[in-house]
Amino acid sequence: MSEGEGTTFMQWRERSQTEVRDDRPKMRALMITAAIVVVIGIVVGSLFLLLS
Fold first, then answer.
1. Residue 11 burial by CB count (10 A; 0-12/13-18/19+): exposed, middle or buried?
2. Share in percent of the chain as helix, strand, coil (round to 5)
3. Distance of alpha carbon 7 from alpha carbon 9, whole angstroms
4. pLDDT category of residue 24 using cuts at 50, 70 and 90
5. What is the reported pLDDT for 1?
6. What distance in Å separates the CA atoms of residue 38 and residue 7, rounded to the nearest whole number?
7. How far is CA 20 from each of CA 24, 42, 46, 48, rounded to the nearest angstrom?
């Protein structure tokens, strides 16, 4: 990302949080669910590798 685009990471994060808060509670729930699935996958994968 170049600085000339005019959108800093902080602005992008702020905008995405605002959009989620205003428009898409389902999207927020989906993202939380996806994060939980990823964490569980990492834990299960780690245990599998440790036990194998």
1. exposed
2. 85, 0, 15
3. 7
4. low
5. 47
6. 28
7. 5, 26, 32, 35
